[in-house]
Amino acid sequence: MPGNTFGQLFRVTTWGESHGPAIGAVIDGCPPRLPLTEAVVQAALDLRRPGKGGPAETARSEPDRVEILSGVFEGRTTGTPISLLIWNRDARSEAYDALREVFRPGHGDITYQAKYGIRDHRGGGRASGRETAARVAAGAVAQVLLDRLGIRVTAYTVALGGVRARAFDPEAIETNRLFCPDPEAAARMEARVAEARAAGDSVGGVVEVRAAGVPAGLGEPVFGKLDGELAGALMSIGAVKGVEIGAGFRAAEMTGSEHNDPITPAGFEGNNAGGILAGISNGDELVIRAAVKPIPSIARPQRTVNLRGEAVELRVGGRHDASAIPRIVPVCQAMVRLVLADHVLRARGQGQAIDWPGEGR
Amino acid sequence: MPGNTFGQLFRVTTWGESHGPAIGAVIDGCPPRLPLTEAVVQAALDLRRPGKGGPAETARSEPDRVEILSGVFEGRTTGTPISLLIWNRDARSEAYDALREVFRPGHGDITYQAKYGIRDHRGGGRASGRETAARVAAGAVAQVLLDRLGIRVTAYTVALGGVRARAFDPEAIETNRLFCPDPEAAARMEARVAEARAAGDSVGGVVEVRAAGVPAGLGEPVFGKLDGELAGALMSIGAVKGVEIGAGFRAAEMTGSEHNDPITPAGFEGNNAGGILAGISNGDELVIRAAVKPIPSIARPQRTVNLRGEAVELRVGGRHDASAIPRIVPVCQAMVRLVLADHVLRARGQGQAIDWPGEGR
Amino acid sequence: MPGNTFGQLFRVTTWGESHGPAIGAVIDGCPPRLPLTEAVVQAALDLRRPGKGGPAETARSEPDRVEILSGVFEGRTTGTPISLLIWNRDARSEAYDALREVFRPGHGDITYQAKYGIRDHRGGGRASGRETAARVAAGAVAQVLLDRLGIRVTAYTVALGGVRARAFDPEAIETNRLFCPDPEAAARMEARVAEARAAGDSVGGVVEVRAAGVPAGLGEPVFGKLDGELAGALMSIGAVKGVEIGAGFRAAEMTGSEHNDPITPAGFEGNNAGGILAGISNGDELVIRAAVKPIPSIARPQRTVNLRGEAVELRVGGRHDASAIPRIVPVCQAMVRLVLADHVLRARGQGQAIDWPGEGR
Amino acid sequence: MPGNTFGQLFRVTTWGESHGPAIGAVIDGCPPRLPLTEAVVQAALDLRRPGKGGPAETARSEPDRVEILSGVFEGRTTGTPISLLIWNRDARSEAYDALREVFRPGHGDITYQAKYGIRDHRGGGRASGRETAARVAAGAVAQVLLDRLGIRVTAYTVALGGVRARAFDPEAIETNRLFCPDPEAAARMEARVAEARAAGDSVGGVVEVRAAGVPAGLGEPVFGKLDGELAGALMSIGAVKGVEIGAGFRAAEMTGSEHNDPITPAGFEGNNAGGILAGISNGDELVIRAAVKPIPSIARPQRTVNLRGEAVELRVGGRHDASAIPRIVPVCQAMVRLVLADHVLRARGQGQAIDWPGEGR
C-alpha cells in the first residue's frame, strides 16, 4: 500500500504539504466511547509548536489550531474515522522561489524529483517536518486509549551537539525547551545550539523514549515484532538515522552472560532487553533511542546542482531551526504512542485478554 | 494483520517451528517469467546452514533441502504463489524437555507464554533462529528479480565480540566463516568466539549490508520510507537490537555542514546519507548496519523462573552457537533483498518507470 | 484493517458524518503528474447532488463544494496524498432529535448501536448516504487516471419500482434525472416514484455499470479477482443487496454450451462472462449489475423499538428520497472507477506492461 | 497486496496448482489454545472430495489427505501460522498436453496468458477448482473458532439446472450428493445433471448459505461491510457470477414498506435484510445466495483460438464434472466461515466485547 498510512488496526493516514492549504490526519480504528476533545489534541500539538523562541527554533510562528471534523459525538469517539485538520496559515511561499530549481543537500528535494518527476518545492512540500504535526495530533488520540490502560510514554533528549545528559530528572523534562532531563546539560546543549546557529550550522542529537505500564504480550512474531515496528516507526521520522532498543549497539560488545537480564520471581534484573524479548513486550519498561541528524538547511554556502544538473552554490535562507530536537522529541513520543495503541488492538484481535475500563458492554 | 507476512507487493509469509515437521515460506506477488530453480534457492540456504563447523556453530547438522511446491512452471515463475518447503529432519526434541517449564533468560520463552498462554518449547518453537531459513530462501527468490535490475546486496561482519574489521576486501567475505571482509580481523574474531565458547558464554557483533545498483526513487513517504522499512526489517531479526543507516548514530554528533553530502554534477560527495534522502533512495549505495546481541543460550548457570514463577537455576544444554553472526549475516542480506524487491514493485505500482529485461510484453 | 479504506495501491479513505462539520476523502497512491482540478471533481459531485428537483429527491439542497487540500501542485498531482474536503453546510440536525432514541427499520441505527454502544443519530451519522459523496469525489480522481488509458465507465438505471428499461440509448442517460437509457421507461419510472412518494413509500431498482476500454489482464487470482472486488465494492454501497456479473443469476439456469462465449480470431462472441474470466479481465466490456433496495425511510407508520427495547410506532419525517437510484448511479460508477484504477496500478506492480501517456520518465 | 491472501486478522494464504506437487494454505492469526487436529480438517475436505461417484462428478479420485505442518502443539493451536499441506497424488498431466496451446472457452486460460505471459496449462493450473480444497481446509480451522461462539454455517443447493428446491429439510442436506434440502428436488436435479452429461453439456445452479448464532455488531463500515465482504468472498469462487443477501434482487422490486423488517421487542419480523443492516450484523440469521455458472469444460465441440490466435475446434477430454455444485457448496460454506472468523477478530480488535470460552487468561 502507499506509504502515508501507519498501523494495522489503529490506522493513521496523514496528508498535506508544508505550504499547501492545510495538513491533517485521518484515524481509522479508534475504539468507540473514549473521551476526546480538541483541547486534548491541541495540548500535544502545542508541545512541538515552533515559535516558542530560543535559538534552536525557526521564526515561523503558527498557532497550529487543530479541528476535529468527524468521529466524535458529544465528546466521545464513535468508532468512525476521526478527521483532524490544521490549516497552514503562515506560509510565506515566495521565500522558497529560489529553491524551485535547486536541490538542497541533505534534503529530499532531489529524491522526490527522481521519484515523482514533480515536486512542491515550497518548504519541502510533503517532506517538510510540518507533516509531523499531524502525527503528533494523531498520537494524542492514541494516548487517550493508552491512558485507559495506564500506559505512559515519555520522550526526552539524551544528547545534543555532542553534549550528553548525565542525570535523569523526569520533572526537568518539561522545564526546558530541549526536553532534557538533565538541567545542567540542557544549559550546555542550548549553548551548543547557539554556537552552531551563529556559525550558520546545525547540530544533531539523540532522543530516548520510555513507555511504562506496557502489558506483557504486545508484539507479533515474526515480522510484526514490537521492536521491529518501533524501529520502523522512529526511522520514518525524516531526520532519524539510527534506532536502538535497550542496550542497543552496546549489546554488540557484550557477552551473553552480561547481556541476559536474569529473571527472578520479582521480575527482571536489569533491562538490557529494553522491555522486549523475541519481539514481544515482557512487562518491563520499553526503552528506545533514536539518532537525529543535524538539520540539513544551514546558512553556510553548500555545493549542489539544479534541475538541469548544473553545479550551483546554495545559501539556504528562510526560517530554519539549528536543531531538530525540540520538534522531534514530541514526534518520537507520538510514534511510540501510535505503535502501542495499534498493538493493544492487535493483541485484542488475536484473542488476548487486554481490556480497558468502559470497554466491555 | 498478523505478523508473519512481510512486504506489500512482494509478499512473504513464513511459517513453522524449530521442531515441528517443517518450515516454509509462501511468496505472493513475484512477477512472472523469471528463471527460478531449487538450486538457486538452495545455494542461498547453504550459506546460513549450520554444520559447516567452526567454534561459533551449533552441532546440529541439517541438510536444509528446499522444495519448490508451486508457482514455477518449466523453470520460470508463473506469477502465482511460490511455496517453499524445508523439512525439519534432525530435531532431537527430547533435548528440550527440561525447558518445558523453564523460561530461558534473554529468550522469548516468557513472552510467548505471556502472549499466547501456550508455547512449543522445543528449540524455541517459532522464535527459533531456524525460522530465518525460510527468510533466506525467500530472499533468494527476491534476488532473482533484483538481478534483472542489476541490484547486488552484500552483507558482512564489521564487528564481533569487540573485534572490529579495519579493512574492506569484498573478496575476503566468502573466504571465512564469519563473513568478515578483513581476513586479519576474522582470525581475531574466531579467537574471540572460541574464547567465549570455552567460557560457556557468547558474543555479539555488528553486521553491515550494502546494496549497489539501487535506482533513485525507491521508498514511499512518509511511513513507507525506505530507511524506515529497512530498519523494521532488520529489527525483525530476533537478535538485532539496533539499526543505523549511513552515518547512523555518528550523525547525532555531527554538524549539518559535516553531515550533508554535497551534490555535484557527477553525483554525491560522501555518503553520510547511506543512499537515502527523505526516505527515498538517491541512486547511491545503500549502507545499513545492525547490532546483534550475544546469543542468550549459554552454558553458564543463569537465574530464572519456571512456569509457576519459582526461582530456578538454569544451565542450557543442547546445541548452541557461541555467536549468531554466521547465521545472521545471510538473514540480514535476505531482509534487505526482500525490502528492495518489494519497493521495486511498489515503485512500478505508483507509475514509476522501473523496468527489467523481459518484463514488458 | 478498519473498514474506511478502499483499494490496495489506489487507496481511498473516506471520513465524516451526515451532520458533522464536514465529510471528505484522502486518496493515497494516485500517480504523479496527472492533471487535476477542483472543477473536475466538482462536475462528478454535481451528478449525485440532491436538490435537482423531481419527486425521487430529498429537499435538502447542498452545494457540495469540494476543496482539494493537498497532493496537487500547479494543476498536477504530485504523488502525495490528495485530501478532498466537503463542508456540511445545510444540516438541520434538530429535525433528527426524535430519532435519538428510536431505531428506524431498515437502517443501521440498531446495528451501529449494537456495534459501538454509541452513535451519531443525526441523519444516519456515518451510515448516511451522504458519505458516498466522498466516494464520488474520489472516483472522479480515479477517472483522471483511467482517462489516460482510454477506460470509460458508464452507469445507468435498468429497472426501478418494477419498471424495466427495454431500450439502450447511451445518449439518453444524461437527459433524465434517473439516468435511464430508455426515455420511455424513464417516464414510467418517474410515475412509479411519484406514486410511491404519494403513498408515503419508496421503491428500489437495478443499476448497471459498463466499463469499456479495459485492457485484458486486470484482476488478481484467487482472492483479488476483478469480479470479486467489483462485487464487494458495489455491495459496500448501503442500499445494494445483490450484485451480478455478465449473465449473472441467469447463468445458473444456462447450460455450459449456452453460457460459454466462443472465442474467435476477432474476439469473443457474446459476453455472458461480463468481460471477466477466472477473475481476470478478458479485454471485453465489463458488465455489472447491482440490486438496490427501496429507501427504508418512509412516511408510513412503522413498528420498531427504542433504546430501551420498548415497542414504538415511527413516522419518519425530514427530507427523504422516494428512490435511491438518482444518487446511487453515480456512486456505482465511482466504485467501479476506484476498483479499476486500483487494479491498473496493481497490474503494473506485478510487472505487467500497463502504461499511460506521460507516465514514463 | 497480491491476491492469494484472504482476511485481515484471520488471514488465509492459499498456494498451489492443480498439477503441481501440492496445494496448501497458511493461516496466520488463528487465536491460540483452540483444539485442532488433522481429523477435523480432513472431515471438511472429505465433503468436497471428488470420487464419491454420481453423474455430476469427475472420475479423478484423490484421497486429499491434509497434513498440519505448523502452528499446533499437543493438539492445540499456538497462535503461530498454521500450515496445511495436501499433496497432488493423482495428476495425469499428459491428459492436458492438447491444451498447452489452446484456450478453453469460459476458462481462465486466455486471461492468465494475457496477464502473465506464461501459464501452467495442466488442469487449469492455479485457476483450477482444486485450489478451493485449500479454502475448505482453512474454513474448517475457522469453524473451530466459530464453534466457541456458537456460530453455525450451513450451505446447500437451492437450484440446479433450472430445478428449484421447494422444501427446506436441514436433515436432508447431508443425505444427498448435491447438498439439496429438498429430497424430491434432489432427485430431479440428479436427473437433470445426468441429462446434461449425456448431452456432453453441463448445468449451473444456486447455492444458499445461512449462518446462525452470529452476534450483532460484526462488519465494518463503510468499505468493510459484512455483506460487502461476503459478496466479495463468494464472488472470489471461480464459477460464481452473482451474489445476493436476504431479499437480494427481489428487493429491487419491493416497496420500502414491504422490504423493511419491522423491529419488535422480540426481534425482527421477517429477514429481508438477510441479517445485515448498514453492513453490520443485526443478530438475525445471515442468508446469502450465490449464482453458479455451468462448468465450462464440456464434451461438445466448441469454437476457440490457440496461442497464435488461429481458430480451432475444441473437444475437452479428461475428467470433468457436469455440475460444479457438489464441490462448490462446501467452498461457499468455507468462505462464509472465513469471513465470519475474520470479523469476529476484527470486532475484538476494535474493542468490542466478543469473547469465547477459554479465551481470556
Report on the architecture of this protein.
4 copies of one chain form a homotetramer. Chain A has helices spanning 38-48, 109-116, 131-149, 183-198, 226-235, 256-259, 325-349; strands at residues 5-6, 11-16, 22-28, 66-68, 72-73, 76-77, 82-87, 152-160, 163-164, 205-212, 240-245, 263-264, 267-268, 276-277, 280-281, 286-292, 302-305, 311-314. Chain A has 361 residues and is an alpha+beta fold. Chain A has a single domain (5-349), classed as Chorismate synthase, AroC fold, CATH 3.60.150. In chain A, the strands form 6 sheets. Chain A has a 5-stranded antiparallel β-sheet with strand order 1-2-3-7-4, with helices on one face. In chain A, strands 9-8-10-16-11 form a 5-stranded antiparallel β-sheet. In chain A, strands 5-6 form a two-stranded antiparallel ribbon. In chain A, a hairpin with a 4-residue loop joins strand 1 (5-6) and strand 2. Chain B binds chain C through residues 1, 9, 29, 31-32, 79-80, 221, 345-346, 348-353, 356, 359-361, and chain C through 1, 9, 29, 31-32, 79-80, 221, 345-346, 348-353, 356, 359-361. Strand 11 of chain A pairs antiparallel with strand 11 of chain B. Chains A, B, C, D: NADP(+) binds at residue 48. Chains A, B, C, D: Keywords: Amino-acid biosynthesis, Aromatic amino acid biosynthesis, FAD, Flavoprotein, FMN, Lyase, NADP. Chains A, B, C, D: Pathway: Metabolic intermediate biosynthesis; chorismate biosynthesis; chorismate from D-erythrose 4-phosphate and phosphoenolpyruvate: step 7/7. Chains A, B, C, D: Its EC number is 4.2.3.5.
